[in-house]
Amino acid sequence: MIRFQGLTKRYGSLTAVRDLTLEVRPGEVYALLGPNGAGKTTALRCLATLLQPTEGTASVSGADALHNPLEVRRRIAFLAASMGLYERLTARELVEYFGRLHGLDGEHLQARVDELVALFGLGEFRNRVCGRLSTGQRQRVSLARALVHDPEALILDEPTLGLDVLSGQTIYDFISWERSRKKAILFSTHQMEEVELLADRVGVLRRGELVAEGTPEDLLERTGEPNLARAFLSLVSENAPVEAT
Questions:
Q1: Which structural domain, as residue segments, surrounds residue 16?
Q2: Residue 24 forms beta bridges with which residues?
Q3: 217: closest CA among 205, 208, 225, 207?
Q4: DSSP at 124
Q5: Does any domain span residue 242?
Q6: CB of 184 closer than 8 Å to CB of 25
Q7: Is 187 helix (H, G, I), strand (E, B) or coil?
């Protein structure tokens, strides 16, 4: 289970995330929405142990990101918007390398890499260096790298940003598969069609605060809007009320 409890992150006088409390249960896909600068990436980075919260906690299955960061890293896959691949390694070498960092070796490592190559369709470019891959190919390699240790929770920051339709569909299918395996999945996106396809629940951030939470149907009912795009715009407008908690 992924849990934020009263998480606040400040940079001097700027509060990027304020008193964020939410949870993502095993077998659930939770979409975190908000305009640019709303605090989505900051919250995800606190959970991924890349930033330290000013107040409150972020945890995975009881392991606290601040006080037990190594255990949290063992339990999560974190896909950042910036892929940062080692450009001189081939796609397969890169996945193998990160597998070794997570303690995999021998036949177990090779079997897991083979599984990910098949799952994400890396076969045709598995021996091509990462510096020569397209954006979609790089994103698929990045996802395979993040998931090589088969963690229990997935944190995905705009996982389909810049991808073509086929690469995006590969990731949609994967997220649905991981949900069926009872993984807790938290992702941020600006794409409302992704929310409609994938999300069991949605949280909406505005200026670092969680202003609405519920199923997609709940948000439509609350706003009275005909679709999620309109509902989102209504919820992040300056005049929208904050949901009582």
A1: 2-21+32-236
A2: 2
A3: 225
A4: G
A5: no
A6: yes
A7: strand
Residue 144 lies in a domain: yes
Number of domains in the chain: 1
pLDDT string in tens for the chain (245-residue length): 999 999 999 999 999 999 999 999 999 999 999 999 999 999 999 999 999 999 999 999 999 999 999 999 999 999 987 768 999 999 999 999 999 999 999 999 999 999 999 989 999 999 999 999 998 899 889 999 999 999 999 999 988 877 778 778 888 999 999 999 999 999 999 889 999 999 999 999 999 999 999 999 999 999 999 999 999 999 998 665 555 44
> In this structure, what DSSP letter does residue 156 have?
E
Q: State how far the Cα of 100 lies from the Cα of 96, in Å rounded to an integer.
A: 6
Element (H, E) at 83: none
Query: What is the domain-level CATH number for residue 178?
Result: 3.40.50.300
Please count the other Cβ atoms lying within 10 Å of the Cβ belonging to residue 196.
Answer: 13
In a domain, 191, yes or no: yes
**Amino acid sitting at position 113:** V
CB burial of residue 187 (10 Å; 0-12, 13-18, 19+): buried
| Residue type present at position 37 | G
Render the burial of 114-134: b for 16+ CB within 10 Å, e for the rest.
Answer: eebbebbebeebbeebbeebe
How far apart are the C-alpha atoms of 146 and 119, rounded to whole Å? 14
- Give this prediction's pTM: 0.92
